[in-house]
Amino acid sequence: MPEIPDSPMFDREGAIRGYRLNKMAMALSTPENRAAFLDDEAAFLDRFQLDVETREAVVNRDWQEMIRLGGNLFYILKLSAIDPIPLLHIGAAQAGMSPERFKRERLGEKQWHT
User: Fold this and answer.
1) Fewer Cβ in 10 A, N or C end of the chain?
2) pLDDT digits over 77-112, tens only?
């Protein structure tokens, strides 16, 4: 499989590396766990024994870093149910761009009415 420059591949190694992160993110599928996260984010994250690097990425909502650490985008997007972050902003963070540049270069500015 050809590699895409600067794009981490979600492969077996990434899945293993990101197991705890993805498990935490998938737990946010239930209203009870979202409430627990909102009530005490630190305690919620403690339940999943995230390493320091991963925990910092979650706390900082560093989408690009979470992907690099093995996060599956479809799982970590569960965090956007906690913080109402527009998908456009997450995509821009993934590309290392401002939302405005992302709209212009990746989506075509004409398509978006904000």
Assistant:
1) N
2) 899 888 888 888 888 877 778 888 888 888 776 655
Q: State pTM to two decimals.
A: 0.77
First to last CA, the chain: 38
Residue that is written with structure tokens 């990425």 in the block: 57
Are 26 and 81 within 8 A, CB to CB?
no
User: Which DSSP state fits 92?
Assistant: H
Instruction: Identify which of 42, 48, 33, 47 has the alpha carbon closest to the alpha carbon of residue 81.
Output: 33
Angle at 81 between CA 76 and CA 85, to 5 degrees: 85
Question: Residue 55 and residue 44: Cα distance in Å, rounded?
Answer: 11
| CB count in 10 Å sphere of residue 13 | 10
